[in-house]
From TrEMBL:
Residues 32-182 form the GAF domain. It comes from Amycolatopsis australiensis. The lineage of its organism: Bacteria, Bacillati, Actinomycetota, Actinomycetes, Pseudonocardiales. Residues 245-276 are annotated as: Disordered. This is GAF domain-containing protein. InterPro entries: CdaR-like_regulators (IPR051448), GAF (IPR003018), GAF-like_dom_sf (IPR029016), PucR_C-HTH_dom (IPR025736), PucR_C-HTH_sf (IPR042070). Residues 178-205 form a coiled coil. Keywords: Coiled coil. It holds the Pfam family HTH_30.
Length: 584
């Protein structure tokens, strides 16, 4: 069942993202540098919720100076300056990555500055988190969140403040450009127009996200604004979305050289290269902290307008928007997958039958629990059950079903009018997604007894694999001949059949530690060829003949007269049962 904390956690995450988007939009407007710095600190303080927040910038003298704060109590604290190479800020600037300490005063992981340490007591600063403000590859300052009691900072807090700092750096960059433009307006009018255009694009991108747009919508907006074509690639380089500008599309494939993508990842900047057919491509990596999420490729004709730094920065800023959007979609998808898996397990464990609460919860996901009549179990050695279940989630969403990992197996329950066809379609879809073989077994759930159907499908899948099938989708009806092996309700029938067909051999092996059953299994597998069987068992022919004579004594001397179908079938069922037991 879904825990009470999960909806609250998801709602908190959504509130944080909504607040982040709203904050980003408010910061995109150019303004006075001090006004922007104070706005950054104010929004960061509201977003993170620590006792106080402050922002420091590196000056021309190489010292780190506090420029804005929210929640501080000491006036001297805001006036503090320290060398940019010491303290927590020094670590943040040197590494261009987040760092934090649980107790600043006692921490031995940082180089302390005496003048700053004297201010720690009056300000009651204890726990401190710092994230870098990076503009075009240069760490120009740091944003700090502090608490007045010892604590550890969680990964989601660090990621949220780091993501905010990326956008704050954009706002800071815009503010600095605006301040510079005021001092030389006559010479920088063209640059100002480009910045204004970039700002308009950035606001439009933010608006797309706030309006519930998709990564494809962001790609389309960029293509329309920059011209040419824009392609969004996933982690492995596959195209997730490709959009052309209406006025000037770019012909040819949208592929980018792997080396260009790797360079963009390494440098954190957009890289530009010319390819075949007169096409120029710029690539920017989409990253969230240390996580690589994909890349954005802007393609255009080489004979078109030469892109300037502003266009490339627009491409880089768009990756920040896309990173947040991808993280949001991943969070929503993961929450949906967890809920789907929990509902599936709940139905499995709670059946047969459907409770009113279960019916209401499935209905809330637009799923009719009464129509969930087919259980599918998938298996492949190339992919873990958890990863395979994620592929089943995509199919379940399209077919109004539920998917998840149940008892270590990738499982799905879904409506089906034609079970054989449905299982074949699921197999075909999985094979395309995985690019390799996969085994899919299906069983109809009678009377909403999903647990029994799951057991039958899973054990039937083991039988299929034991029979040598590795790439197939089929229902258990196709393997009715072997039902005694995978149907627990028929275990008694199987025991009686084995006792009547090979019982004396099994008992003899059990009492004396011999292997007559395996010997006869190999004998029939090699078409009663004594020499071939002896080679397969790595024994002398005389040894094999003695074993066959012993089997004849136990079974009766007519066991090789040709009327041995029951014996052969017993040996095969015994072998399959052992394989299924080992697989389970």
């Amino acid at each position: 069942m879904t825990s009470a904390a999960e909806p609250g956690s998801l709602a908190r995450r959504q509130r944080e993202l909504a607040s982040l988007y709203a904050t980003v939009k408010s910061l995109t407007a150019l303004g006075e540098l001090d006004e922007v710095l104070q706005s950054i600190v104010h929004h960061a303080h509201d977003l993170i919720g620590t006792d106080f927040t402050y922002l420091s910038l590196v000056g021309a003298d190489g010292r780190l100076s506090a420029r804005a704060s929210e929640g501080t109590i000491s006036a001297e604290f805001l006036a503090a300056t320290i060398p940019a190479t010491v303290g927590l800020g020094g670590k943040v600037l040197a590494s261009r990555s987040p760092h934090w300490v649980r107790d600043y005063a006692t921490s031995t992981l940082i180089e302390h500055d005496p003048s700053f340490d004297r201010l720690v007591g009056p300000e009651k600063l204890v726990a401190l988190l710092g994230v870098p403000l990076v503009i075009r590859g240069e760490a120009v300052g740091a944003l700090f969140a502090a608490d007045r009691s010892a604590r550890s900072f969680q990964a989601d807090e660090i990621a949220l403040l780091n993501a905010f700092a990326d956008h704050a750096a954009v706002a800071l960059d815009n503010a600095r450009l605006y301040e510079a433009s005021r001092t030389a307006l006559q010479q920088l009018q063209d640059a100002y127009r480009k910045i204004e255009r970039a700002q308009a694009i950035h606001e439009a991108l933010t608006g797309v996200v706030l309006a519930g747009g998709t990564p494809g919508d962001v790609a389309q907006l960029l293509a329309d604004q920059l011209g040419g074509s824009v392609t969004l690639l996933d982690r492995i380089g596959a195209a997730l979305a490709h959009r052309d500008a209406a006025a000037d599309p770019c012909p040819g494939p949208p592929a980018a050289e792997p080396s260009a993508i790797e360079e963009a990842r390494r440098s954190g900047r957009a890289t530009t290269s010319s390819g075949a057919g007169g096409i120029t491509r710029s690539v920017a990596a989409i990253q969230a902290g240390d996580s690589y999420l994909g890349a954005l490729v802007w393609s255009r004709r080489a004979d078109g307008a030469v892109p300037d730094g502003t266009d490339l920065r627009t491409l880089e800023r768009a990756t920040h928007i896309l990173g947040l959007l991808i993280l949001k979609e991943q969070a929503v998808a993961e929450a949906s997958e967890r809920l789907s898996g929990e509902l599936l397990t709940e139905l499995m464990l709670g059946g047969p039958g459907i409770s009113p609460a279960q019916r209401a919860r499935t209905r809330a996901r637009n799923i009719d629990a009464d129509r969930l009549d087919l259980v599918v179990v998938a298996d492949t050695p190339a992919v873990s059950p958890a990863d395979l279940a994620r592929h089943l989630h995509d199919i379940a969403r399209e077919r109004a079903g539920l998917a998840g990992e149940h008892l270590g197996r990738a499982t799905m329950i879904l409506p089906s009018a034609d079970d054989d066809r449905t299982v074949e379609e699921v197999h075909s879809r999985l094979r395309r997604s995985l690019g390799g073989p996969v085994l899919v077994a299906g069983e109809r759930a009678a009377g909403h007894d999903w647990s029994r159907a799951f057991a039958l499908a899973g054990r039937c899948g083991a039988v299929m694999r034991a029979l040598g099938h590795t790439d197939l989708g089929a229902t258990t009806r196709r393997y009715a001949l072997y039902a005694m092996v995978f149907d627990a309700d028929r275990a008694g029938d199987l025991e009686r059949f084995l006792a009547g067909s090979i019982g004396p051999l099994v008992e003899y092996d059990r009492q004396r530690g011999t292997d007559l059953v395996d010997t006869l299994t190999a004998y029939y597998r090699h078409r009663a060829n004594v020499a071939a069987t002896a080679r397969a068992l790595h024994v002398h022919v005389n040894t094999l003949l003695k074993r066959l004579d012993r089997a004849g004594t136990l079974l009766g001397q007519g066991w090789r007269d040709g009327n041995d179908l029951e014996l052969r079938l017993g040996l095969r069922l015994h072998e399959l049962r052992a394989s299924v037991a080992a697989g389970s």
